[in-house]
Design goal:
- It is a single chain.
- The protein is built from 6 helices and 10 strands; from the N terminus they run H-H-H-H-E-H-E-E-E-E-E-E-E-E-H-E.
- The strands form 3 sheets. A 6-stranded antiparallel beta sheet has the order 1-10-2-5-8-9, with helices on both faces. It has a two-stranded antiparallel ribbon with strand order 3-4.
- Helix 1 packs across helix 3.
- The protein is globular, with a radius of gyration of 15 Å.
Amino acid sequence: MPRSVVQVCEDFLDHSELLKDCSGFVSAVAREFGYGDVVRGNANSLRAKFGSEATTQLPLRFIGKNPNLATEYAGKGHLVLGGLTSTEMTYKDKSGREHRASMGHVVVVAPGGPSKPGKLSLADGREQPVRGGYPYCYQGAANVPYRLKLRTQVDLVFPSACLKDVIYAWLEVKG
């Protein structure tokens, strides 16, 4: 019996090298399902592969900015990706101060959402508030506090100002 996306992600949480790199984590998961040629590159280039419905090429299928549909496809056992480029993660806060991202970020969406609001612990023990209502996910992260060895939430790992802009796509997983 083939392993599920969740099982593969859970196995890769023990690989410290994959936890240091979101695109490496996502690419490793994709390779397990035969999509290594499709899902490779850094976070910016991966996210660009599902830039719009018109530019997304099979076998990737564009979902867009619909977190509920992303969760639905993940619940059906498909490999669902979510992400933002560094440009998409650059924003101005309420005081007008610009936050410029140095790299993009990609995740593997997990079934079971939408996520719950509250506070979650980061890898360094600090707590961070989350608003809930977004997909659960697995990921690697360049930023040490976000190298979580468990399923987490999209609303924890992307800037809150950018949550509505996260783009999703899916790949069929044959069972």
